[in-house]
């Protein structure tokens, strides 16, 4: 059985969502009253539908709501529906995405008929997260029409590249790759949001820079480059076994991979004469030859991100210059390289909850950032302090806030947005020094961070959504040492 592109992306997010009800958002998440959910207003008796498949864990009277329904979904998240005047489902029933579960009312503390929709990342959470980005990640944008299939699939954002990388398989399990002196090593979660396999040595280029991207059918593809060669390998089926390494080009300095809006993977690699790229000629298909990009910083660190409209953007940094280029149309050609700042040590790029890109770069006096003020304009560089000449990575918290992690030989530290699309906290200690760092998101929304050193590969993960575990080996062994 094959996995459709939309289904593979939805699986990685947790599940494919359905529209909960018609109407408009009359009271958003947060705000002055710290509203814990969203209110969707519509006429009395409007049908309410299950956001996704799951089990009904509450159905009946509830303080403030009058009546409520709560559904536990396979990825561990809970959706909560309140103020209905009629319920169709009872505790213990299994429901499917889009199934009618209630009729809208104004029971409890309500000024008029509406659905109060709350989302919790697990049953232990007391405070909900914003349902709007939660639904958008699963293919639903409010306002919506129940019964219609989700519109365009959510954007597939590039995975952080470097000597250690992690990405989610189509079934939601994280996989991690680390490049040592004896080639590339690989470990994977044995269950979604769970523990890890032992390290497996895959061979391939020694001391490589790595990138990972999903094919349109959900199969992950990994790319490795060192000074002598570029190679790649890919899953034979979604979430399944991997091919052997295959030649993909001559050597280079850094590699990044992203997915076009039409599902085609595009790969960029830097070398001594600039930056080159290569792309799939069709989704899940063969590749173009390597093509020059018209320049780019030689020997640079290359990172990719996706603009809000689905166009890929590339950022490349070496010790003397920083440049970027971008697709001039979705799935289309590329701009000329543009200056983006002075040189530095490393770069990470992420996107705000509203889609605007945010770029962080490290150098000898700390970490600076720059962010889109509109789809076509950028702020000036602003200092954040932080570890000098550090390796950088970033990811988004469950409620859509960007979090940035930095490591150098003496320390690890992180900062985070204090609210969605907002300014950042001060840098906070995150661990001792190391050599490389990358962050990935579990299927339940918790960030997991992998850090490397001469001793091997450690990881640290969110135990809630503001608390962290201690650093530990990924499994019972250290993994490859990385200098």
TrEMBL record:
Residue span(s) of domain Rhodanese: 192-208
Its name, as the record gives it, is Rhodanese domain-containing protein
Q: Which PROSITE patterns match?
A: RHODANESE_3
One Pfam entry for this protein is Peptidase_M23
Q: Which superkingdom heads the taxonomic lineage of this protein's source? A: Bacteria
Query: Which species does the entry assign this protein to?
Result: Streptomyces syringium
Q: Which PANTHER family is this protein grouped with? A: MUREIN HYDROLASE ACTIVATOR ENVC, PEPTIDASE-RELATED
InterPro entries listed in its UniProt record = Cell_wall_metabolism_enzyme, Dup_hybrid_motif, M23ase_b-sheet_dom, PLL-like_beta-prop, Rhodanese-like_dom
């Amino acid at each position: 059985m094959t996995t459709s592109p939309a289904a593979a992306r939805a699986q990685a997010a947790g599940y494919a969502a359905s529209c909960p009800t018609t109407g408009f958002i009359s009271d958003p998440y947060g705000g002055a009253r710290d509203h814990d959910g969203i209110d969707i207003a519509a006429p009395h008796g409007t049908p309410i539908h299950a956001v996704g498949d799951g089990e009904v864990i509450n159905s009946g009277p509830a303080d403030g709501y009058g009546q409520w329904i709560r559904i536990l979904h396979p990825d561990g998240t809970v959706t909560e529906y309140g103020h209905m005047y009629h319920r169709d489902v009872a505790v213990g029933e299994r429901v499917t995405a889009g199934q009618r579960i209630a009729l809208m009312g104004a029971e409890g503390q309500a000024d008029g008929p509406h659905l109060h929709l709350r989302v919790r990342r697990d049953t232990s959470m007391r405070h909900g997260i914003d349902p709007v980005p939660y639904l958008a990640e699963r293919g639903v944008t409010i306002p919506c029409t129940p019964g219609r299939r989700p519109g365009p699939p959510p954007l597939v954002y590039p995975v952080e590249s470097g000597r250690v990388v992690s990405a989610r398989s189509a079934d939601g399990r994280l996989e991690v790759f680390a490049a040592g002196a004896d080639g590339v090593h690989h470990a994977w979660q044995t269950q979604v949001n769970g523990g890890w396999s032992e390290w497996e040595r895959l061979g391939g280029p020694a001391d490589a820079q790595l990138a990972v991207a999903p094919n349109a059918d959900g199969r992950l593809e990994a790319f490795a480059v060192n000074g002598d060669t570029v190679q790649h390998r890919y899953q034979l089926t979604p979430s399944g076994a991997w091919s052997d390494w295959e030649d993909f080009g001559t050597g280079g300095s850094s590699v990044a991979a992203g997915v076009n809006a039409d599902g085609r993977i595009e790969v960029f690699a830097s070398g001594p004469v600039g930056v080159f790229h290569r792309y799939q000629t069709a989704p899940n298909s063969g590749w173009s030859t390597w093509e020059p990009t018209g320049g780019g910083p030689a020997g640079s660190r290359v990172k990719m991100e996706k603009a809000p409209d689905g166009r890929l953007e590339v950022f490349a940094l070496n010790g003397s210059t920083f440049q970027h280029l971008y697709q001039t149309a979705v799935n289309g050609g590329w701009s000329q390289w543009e200056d983006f700042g002075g040189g530095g040590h490393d770069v990470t790029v992420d996107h705000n909850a509203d889609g605007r890109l945010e770029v962080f770069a490290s150098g000898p006096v700390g970490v600076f950032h720059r962010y889109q003020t509109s789809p076509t304009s950028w702020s000036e560089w602003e200092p954040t302090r932080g570890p000098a000449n550090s390796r950088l990575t970033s990811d988004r918290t469950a409620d859509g806030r960007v979090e940035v992690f930095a490591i150098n030989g003496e320390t690890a530290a992180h900062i985070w947005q204090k609210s969605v699309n907002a300014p950042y906290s001060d840098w906070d200690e995150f661990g001792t020094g190391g050599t490389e760092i990358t962050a990935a998101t579990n299927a339940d929304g918790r960030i997991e961070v992998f850090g490397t050193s001469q001793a091997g590969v450690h990881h640290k993960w969110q135990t809630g959504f503001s608390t962290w575990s201690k650093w530990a080996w990924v499994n019972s062994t250290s993994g490859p040492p990385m200098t």
